[in-house]
Amino acid sequence: MCELFALSSRIPTEVRFSLEAFSHRGRLDGRNKDGWGVAYYQENDVRLLKEPAPAADSACVRFLQEQPFASSIVVSHIRRATQGLPSMRNTQPFARELGGRMHVFAHNGDLDPAALRSRLRLGSWRPVGDTDSEYAFCALLELLAPLWREPHEPSLQARRDVVRQFAGVVRTLGPANFIYADGDALFLHGHRRMHGDGLAPHPPGLHVLSRHCAGDPGAWHADGVSVAARAHQDVLLAASVPLTDEPGWRALAEGELVVARNGRIVAGPVTGPPSR
């Protein structure tokens, strides 16, 4: 399956990627070759870079390693194609506008396409590509749209309730680990994934690490990711598998939803019934 990564920080921070090493950490060597993408929030917009090609062969990835962008919300995805051919339109993360905000979505899993279309109907948003992940994102935007069409920004509680409702549906359709961001908050949903042990998909599907950097001018390093540290910085990291062996990584429970803002978890855990 695919590999997910996300960051939320109190102040914008530089993130350097070695996506090839990052995919190896997930024990899926040689299989995550169908595309990669990274979304960096900046002001009210998103800088989105992605390619339907191996990260190891990408000049763009090498540029990101040498000239990293600074952002307070970052979402990354390394793809192993299960639905839809390797192509730009099927490469994640996906980004769309709603309510004057850019919304970003990345999914790790494989949802039943017929059941997905039966359970979640589309309206104003339509997929550009052929993946279950993009269809699910369009359906999520449809559920969120009434909130964002109000004259004032919807409350975090109202947004979380909609994302929780959406998560409760999609995890009945297949593995449904996803990261969703709306420019203000980062929503993390853990479910099930392949672990390279020969078993069917099982928890955990996503891990989180919270860090507070006080007076440390150095950087935090992991396999494939380096985060510039600044004094009095709060950082929350999420990844399919722990990126380091340090204590502090926590596996999300099956069906758990947490919400991060400014580098700290502000809502969660919220769990639903196990998938059937």
Give a structural overview.
By secondary structure, the protein is of the alpha+beta class. It has one domain: Glutamine Phosphoribosylpyrophosphate, subunit 1, domain 1, CATH 3.60.20. Helix content is 20%, strand content 36%. The chain is built from 5 helices and 15 strands.
Quick structural gist:
This protein has about 280 residues and is of the alpha+beta class.
- The CATH architecture assignment turns out to be 4-Layer Sandwich
Count of discrete structural domains:
1
User: What does the radius of gyration come to?
Assistant: 17 Å
The helix fraction, in percent, is 10-25%
Kindly report the name of the CATH homologous superfamily. Answer: Aminohydrolase, N-terminal nucleophile (Ntn) domain
Percent of residues in beta strands = 35-45%
User: Distance between the terminal alpha carbons, to the nearest Å?
Assistant: 20 Å
Regions with pLDDT < 50 over 5+ consecutive residues?
A: none
The general outline is globular
H/I helix tally: 5
Largest sheet: 9 strands, antiparallel
Oligomer: single chain
- Tell me the name of the CATH class: Alpha Beta
Structural class: alpha+beta
Kindly state the number of beta strands.
Answer: 15
List keywords for this structure.
276 residues; alpha+beta; Glutamine Phosphoribosylpyrophosphate, subunit 1, domain 1; globular
What topology emerges from the helices and strands here?
Blueprint: E1 3-17, H1 19-25, E2 36-42, E3 45-51, H2 59-66, E4 70-78, E5 94-98, E6 101-108, H3 113-119, H4 132-148, H5 156-170, E7 177-181, E8 186-190, E9 207-213, E10 219-222, E11 225-228, E12 233-239, E13 250-251, E14 256-261, E15 264-271
Antiparallel strand pairs: 1-4, 1-11, 1-12, 2-3, 2-4, 5-6, 6-7, 7-8, 8-14, 9-12, 9-13, 10-11, 14-15
